[in-house]
Write a structure and sequence with these properties.
Elements (H helix, E strand, L loop, with lengths): L2 H10 L7 H8 L3 H13 L21 E5 L8 H8 L4 E6 L6 E5 L7
Antiparallel strand pairs: 1-3, 2-3
């Protein structure tokens, strides 16, 4: 992969659906040549997909978060667990063994106190 392909990838990473003409202009090449380069990168599966992320708020989707928590120096301290459980977004808190000491189940849409 040459420097032009690497530059195209760098331009596409923040916005995979970037306008081909704008991409070509930044590369100093014809739009058709830039598009051909992009298609070759897709064919070689260097680029896997271009997709959009939908804001779940507008679709009224219920979000639920599971967070692994390993508090430094607390190693499963019950008081640390109680403080986390008091947070309004915390729906459940589980004390576990292993590298992470707690798993917090929370609702990101609920306001924090």
């Amino acid at each position: 992969m040459g420097p032009i392909d690497l530059n195209i990838l760098a331009l596409l990473q923040p916005n995979a659906r970037k306008n081909n003409t704008a991409m070509a202009k930044k590369q100093g090449m014809a739009p058709s040549a830039a598009l051909e380069r992009k298609k070759k990168l897709e064919a070689r599966q260097v680029i896997n997909a271009d997709y959009i992320r939908v804001n779940p708020q507008f679709l009224d989707l219920n979000l639920l978060a599971f967070i692994d928590v390993n508090p430094l120096g607390s190693r499963g301290n019950p008081e640390t667990g109680r403080r986390m459980a008091r947070r309004s977004r915390a729906l459940e808190l589980h004390h576990i063994t292993g590298e992470d000491w707690f798993i917090l189940k929370g609702d990101p849409k609920t306001p924090n106190p």
